[in-house]
Specification:
4 helices; elongated; 178 residues; three-stranded mixed beta sheet
Length: 178
Amino acid sequence: MADPARAQRMAKRISSIVASAIGSEIKDPRLNFVTVTDTKVTNDLHDATVYYTVMGESLDVAPDYEGAAAGLARATGLLRSKVGAGTGVRFTPTLRFVLDTVPDTARHMEELVARARAHDEMLARQARDAVPAGDPDPYRDDVSTTDDAPTDGAAADGSSPRGADPADYDGPDAADRR
């Protein structure tokens, strides 16, 4: 059994060989917008799975997934011989092509996040412009104060709030005040 590091190196090499062959040597117009995204090779180096994605000619044109799959199926033998010549291994791995859905899933997730951000901004705008349903300050006491009521925390008779003279205070710095 081969070691996983060798399988990873082989996968990278197969990926570059297949991408180069699709881009320059295979003249099938169905493969013009095919991009190889990843390759996985089994540890025994007998099977390789090549992941690909297909782009449209422009943003308005949908990709031709079926045409790309048919073009890759037709070119599998040629691509396998290119991989065999380019890797130099005793047994050329069989190639299997699988459509990679990760870019589409990522695009869908980005759209969902953008929609969530827009919804959050709308809620923040509504919260900023919101007016309380009842009294703006329900805990405010509407009792009016008179001019003779003390406002500095002292009682009406002039004593301190504790009812004691500040000179009689026995706090940590009481000795400094005496």
